[in-house]
Amino acid sequence: MPMSCVAKDSVGDLGRHVPALSSSLRPRPHEELREWGGSPLVRGKRVLDLGCGDGRLALGVAPFATRVEGIDPDPEAIAAAKRNARKDGVRNVHFAAGAAQHLPYPDAAFDLVILSWTL
């Protein structure tokens, strides 16, 4: 079975667990993000959060980055990320449903790619 079929089939199962997973994690990993934000790796950079889930990391690095894009195969997670961005008033982040195998960006579109809790 092609990997894209496995990922597509498993997304539906994961999506129903997003609220429980999100509520069990710290609201934002503030200490780590403060360190990242002060780093030349993030400050003023274009960042891709691959497998962004509810946007926790993307929204955390957004104040330090020029632009952040979050991609996740789960539409429910993307909806949660967009709600979180609106709630937090973050404007330099864009979230979209998509797969890592088929990114809609040209080569070298980002200075930094972050992944966390991604299979």
Q: What does this molecule look like?
A:
The longest helix has 14 residues, at 75-88. Mean pLDDT is 80; it is low at 1-10. The chain is globular. 40% of the residues lie in helices and 17% in strands. β1 (46-50), α4 (56-61) and β2 (67-72) form a beta-alpha-beta unit. The chain has one domain: Rossmann fold (3-Layer(aba) Sandwich), CATH 3.40.50. The chain is α/β, with parallel strands linked by helices and 119 residues long.
Strand and helix layout:
Blueprint: H1 3-15, H2 18-24, H3 30-37, E1 46-50, H4 56-61, E2 67-72, H5 75-88, E3 93-97, E4 112-115
Parallel strand pairs: 1-2, 1-4, 2-3
CATH architecture: 3-Layer(aba) Sandwich
- Gyration radius from CA atoms, angstroms: 14 Å
Stretches with pLDDT under 50, minimum 5 residues: 1-10
> Helix segment count?
5
- CATH class assignment: Alpha Beta
Order of helices and strands: HHHEHEHEE
Number of strands: 4
Q: Separation of termini?
A: 17 Å
* Alpha-beta content class: alpha/beta
CATH superfamily membership, which one?
A: Vaccinia Virus protein VP39
Q: Major sheet: order of its strands?
A: 3-2-1-4
Determine the CATH topology: Rossmann fold
Mean pLDDT, to the nearest integer, reads 80
Which range does the strand content fall in? 15-25%
Overall 3D form: globular
Q: Total domains, how many?
A: 1
